[in-house]
Amino acid sequence: MTALEAIRSRISANKFDTGKPLSQHEVRELVEYAVEAPSSFNQQNWRFVAVTRKEAKERLKAVSFNQQKVADAAVTFIVLGDLKGYERMPEALAPSVKAGLITQKDSDAWTGMAAGMYAEARMARDEAVRSGSLAAMTLMLAAAAKGLASGPMIGFDPDGVRREFKIPERYLPVLLLPVGHAAPGNWPRKPRLPAGDVLRFDSGEGL
What we know:
Blueprint: H1 3-9, H2 24-34, E1 46-51, H3 54-62, H4 69-72, E2 75-82, H5 89-98, H6 104-118, H7 121-145, E3 149-150, H8 158-165, E4 171-180, H9 195-198
Antiparallel strand pairs: 1-2, 2-4, 3-4
């Protein structure tokens, strides 16, 4: 399946085949694709908790308004954004410096700029949501390309998720992402608004 086919065929699934698990290797591979997403200054301020065990899924379900798809999916990812991702930028940028893609001076400058920008709480939150969402969308497309279904969720208690899964305060739960093999009964892909309804050139007038 091509990337364009994955975009056009993906659905947001609510029903998953409980008899078809994914291996840890398959789960890890999905995240390997997810981290190819872009992020500000390449700080890569996303993290993932892969919830795969039955007991853990039930705990996650309990803080997700008892939505059954959390328990039925082969894995439900807790997608997190790091509110202090800029603190880890030297580590994140070190491979680029080593490969000669940027200089150490560039790395130091980017780290300083990011620290100044994201010291402000709202900016940090916006970037955590933005980066986490880009990574989640990349993961969804990778899942679709592999013949898997996914369904992003915002219906959960962030504080409950933090508590149940021992997530440090620096991480913002952005969304939950159940992934697995689709079961019968999912809605078909729903039509989208045409591009002409959502696009304007050079001005927002008329939106």
